[in-house]
Specification:
The chain is mainly α. It is built from 10 helices and 6 strands, in the order αβββαααααβββαααα. It folds into 3 domains: 96 residues; 81 residues, no CATH class; 34 residues, no CATH class. Helix 6 packs antiparallel against helix 7 and helix 8 crosses helix 9. It binds zinc ion (ZN) (2 copies).
Length: 260
């Protein structure tokens, strides 16, 4: 969602930009050549019409910078992704029927349009889109820190409440990696990780590094190289971390990672 990244005072400009682009695929109201209003759709999804009098074909992009940039429904999608800071490679990877050239050309025209019609939005956008290629936005950094301190807190906790008998007299076991405790009242063992989502993850010594790698936009293969764990483990860990971010309500971070 671009509203996570676009500053609040520019939300209406961003919305206006997206709605301008969406409107391009709507049915035109009159023929631009003969002004006749009886038109019929040739292709409803691209808003392409034919005039029933002069028989000429057109859509709303005629006389706009977006002329001949079909499919027009791609334009608002690309614009939204750029406002989230997505690079060409990510956009192309997700819309994988299009060549890099197709995406780049549309991005360029959208940026020119934004600069002309929504100059304040563009003033924010330009340094943002360049910055996101190297650095992580502040609101994402904040959620990374929240997640890390939550994880560290669980791993380093020295006290716990027994899930079996609710006793608070529990002793931490020496193996700190799995946050194991033993209840002094009922003598049962339990882990602090249970119910957090973390119990499904191995290698707790790698957790903080894994969070950084995900936030840096590393792919599974790159993470595998750094942490020296198998592809299957990385794939599973990524899924579990995204799930934990959802549960912890760290939605900006989750979106940031999902769209890298
Ligand atoms: Zn006509
Ligand atoms: Zn107990």
């Amino acid at each position: 969602m671009y509203s996570n990244f676009v500053p609040t005072n520019l939300h209406n400009q961003a919305e206006a930009l997206i709605s301008d682009l969406k409107l391009l695929s709507d049915k035109p109201t009159e023929c631009p050549y003969c002004k006749n209003t009886k038109l019929y759709f040739v292709n409803a999804s691209s808003g392409y019409c034919r005039c029933s009098v002069c028989k000429r074909g057109f859509n709303r992009s005629l006389n706009t910078p977006f002329y001949r940039l079909a499919p027009l429904e791609l334009l608002p999608i690309i614009a939204e992704r750029r406002l989230c800071g997505q690079g060409y490679a990510t956009i192309r990877h997700e819309l994988n029927t299009y060549t890099p050239w197709v995406i780049k050309r549309r991005v360029r025209v959208i940026e020119q349009y934004m600069q002309t019609h929504y100059p304040e939005l563009y003033q924010w956008y330009q340094p943002f889109i360049e910055g996101t290629q190297q650095s992580i936005p502040d609101n994402v950094v904040q959620q990374i820190q929240q997640l890390k301190s939550w994880v560290t807190g669980i791993l380093n906790a020295t006290t716990a409440t027994c899930p079996h008998c609710d006793s608070i007299h529990c002793q931490k076991m020496n193996d700190t990696r799995r946050a194991q405790f033993r209840c002094k009242s009922c003598w049962r063992y339990f882990s602090n990780l249970k119910g957090t989502g973390l119990e499904h993850l191995g290698y707790s010594e790698n957790w903080l590094t894994m969070i950084d790698l995900l936030a840096d936009g590393k792919n599974n293969h790159e993470i595998e190289q750094v942490l020296k764990i198998s592809t299957g483990t990385v794939t599973k860990a990524r899924r579990i971390w995204l799930d934990i971010m959802q549960r912890q309500n760290l939605l900006i971070l989750k979106e940031w990672i999902s769209s890298r």
